[in-house]
From TrEMBL:
Chain ranges of the Alpha/beta hydrolase fold-3 domain: 151-346
Alphabetized InterPro entries for the sequence: AB_hydrolase_3, AB_hydrolase_fold, GDXG_lipolytic_enzyme
Superkingdom in the source lineage: Eukaryota
Alphabetical list of PANTHER family matching this protein: AB HYDROLASE SUPERFAMILY PROTEIN C4A8.06C, ALPHA_BETA HYDROLASE FOLD-3 DOMAIN-CONTAINING PROTEIN-RELATED
Transmembrane segments: 22-45
SUPFAM superfamilies: alpha/beta-Hydrolases (SSF53474)
Gene Ontology MF, one: hydrolase activity
Alphabetical UniProt keywords: Hydrolase, Membrane, Transmembrane, Transmembrane helix
Protein name per the record: Alpha/beta hydrolase fold-3 domain-containing protein
């Protein structure tokens, strides 16, 4: 049965989420991890005992470790807090103000959750501006041959990560390299539903996605055909949601949308039982209870999960923006990613929709 609302009891709330319970549990886990790691290292020597027979010994151990760490995070209900301070980023850090309230229409308009200032990190550097002008340097005209600008939304179940170098630096550098000479990217620190100081549920992160896009097009005057939007996991939800919104309001859409293991069917991912019953559960490092927790704070009941922005796989739409989807063949969201591509191909034709999947990747 399709889940229409988030699980009421998905938020961790037992003794391990309080003080000193969390401290005790962390210490207990730290002591136990080396012992369990040694056992797992021995247990996974035969390839037949690994989560996938195709995996290397190192791959099996790494997946076990990530699953264990994420399990501890869920046990104690750990949540991150965001800051708009640049830290060591200097001029690479930018604080973006919301656009005019009129820009946030329909699903992005909310009585309580309003657009706010957000932060973002440039990789490798912010594009230079002409002195005394709002346009960019390098000729000042983005219609001339230049590198692409990527607008990227990190993953993290709407609860963790920031797009800063500590958690996104390697991926950002890799993305720029793949986009070709002269490419740069802006990684958005959108508001988190699990922020300890300022929890922001739906539609806050979607508002932030639009805020960052309008910053590029209106303030920096980057033409949409030079922009590539992208995201992984929950960030993928924001990326394709941004494209949908631009189509709906009749605004120019970006050149392409890159989705890496995107969350595209919340009716599945928010159901802990469905996630844990999936055939790929043993080869993924995300448990059902963790996914359900993320959606419980992002989409609290009675908000329905089957809407077009939360479950885009169920609501394909035609767009001229080319869409690329990459998914791990060992992930629990593989099926929904395939369904997403197939559904979009049906409404727009096969051209422009690409799916890449690796059978060994968790």
């Amino acid at each position: 049965m399709t889940r229409l609302v988030a699980e009421e009891d998905a938020i961790p709330s037992d003794w391990r989420t309080t003080t000193p319970g969390a401290v005790i549990w962390i210490l207990f886990s730290i002591i136990g991890i080396p012992i369990r790691a040694l056992f797992s290292a021995i247990f996974y020597i035969p390839s037949s005992l690994r989560p996938s027979k195709q995996w290397t010994h190192d791959q099996a151990l790494r997946t076990w470790l990530m699953r264990t760490v994420f399990g501890i995070i869920t046990d104690i209900g750990w949540m991150q807090s965001m800051s708009l301070k640049p830290g060591k980023l200097g001029r690479r850090w930018v604080v973006i103000k919301p656009a005019s309230p009129k820009a946030y229409q329909g699903p992005l308009s909310h009585d309580v959750v309003k657009p706010q200032r957000i932060g973002a990190t440039w990789y490798p550097e912010p594009p230079p501006r002409r002195h005394g002008e709002r346009g960019l340097e390098e000729g000042g005209n983005w219609n001339e041959p230049q590198g692409l600008v990527a607008l990227y939304f990190h993953g993290g179940s709407f609860m963790w990560l920031s797009g800063r170098p500590d958690d996104s630096g390697f991926a950002a550098d890799l993305l720029n390299t793949r986009l070709g000479p002269g490419a740069c990217s802006l990684w958005v620190q959108y508001r988190l539903s699990g922020d300890k100081n300022d929890p922001t549920p739906w539609p806050g992160p979607f508002q932030d996605a639009l805020t960052s896009y309008l910053y590029l097009t209106n303030e920096l005057r980057v033409p949409p055909h030079r922009i590539v939007v992208g995201g992984d996991s929950s960030g993928g939800t924001l990326a394709i949601g941004l494209v949908r919104y631009l189509v709906e309001v009749g605004q120019p859409t970006p050149k392409a949308c890159l989705l890496f293991s995107p969350s595209v069917d919340t009716t599945f991912e928010a159901d802990s039982r469905d996630v844990d019953r999936h055939r790929n559960q043993k080869t993924d490092y995300i448990e059902g209870r963790m996914a359900a927790w993320g959606y419980r704070v992002f989409t609290p009941p009675p908000l329905h999960l089957d809407g077009p922005y939360l479950s885009p796989s169920l609501h394909p739409f035609p767009t001229r923006t080319a869409i690329f989807v990459q998914s791990g063949g060992a992930e629990v969201i593989l099926d929904t990613n395939i369904e997403f591509v197939e559904s979009f191909r049906r409404v727009s034709g096969k051209q422009g929709y690409t799916l890449g999947a690796s059978g060994r990747a968790p």
